[in-house]
Write a structure and sequence with these properties.
The chain contains four helices and no strands. The chain is mainly alpha-helical. The protein starts with 53 loop residues before the first helix and ends with a helix.
Length: 124
């Protein structure tokens, strides 16, 4: 730790809100070691209601982003603009595969993620 000219060691700087962006959650990246169950019963949360599915969680997160900007994906015009944007992103991913050497595996992964994101307005 650096020492200032008076001989005092400054206190450590607490992490700020931007420091969280540097965190990579490894649990989501680990390979599955067992096959997924054929049918998995939904887990129940503390309120007795079923926990949200991954698709519902994604919808809540993306809707939250829109709500922060005083918009909502339940508005048909906003949902349409959102879909147009995702279609443009799909076009860019296809172009990156054709021109920039994006692997087929990464291409399919990105397309799948964007197709899931396109379902958000319907989930809400």
């Amino acid at each position: 730790m650096p020492v200032d000219p008076a001989g005092h060691t400054p206190p450590p700087v607490p992490p700020g809100p931007d420091d969280a962006a540097d965190i990579i959650h490894i649990g989501a990246r680990r390979a599955r070691t067992t096959a997924p169950p054929e049918h998995q019963e939904p887990t129940v949360g503390a309120n007795g209601q079923p926990d949200p599915t991954p698709e519902q969680k994604l919808a809540e997160i993306i809707q939250g982003m829109f709500l922060e900007e005083h918009r909502t994906l339940t508005d048909p015009a906003t949902a349409e603009a959102y879909d147009i944007t995702l279609r443009a992103m799909l076009l860019m991913v296809d172009g990156a595969t054709a021109r920039a050497g994006l692997s087929e595996e990464h291409h399919q992964l990105l397309r799948s993620l964007m197709q899931q994101a396109r379902q958000v307005p319907g989930i809400l």
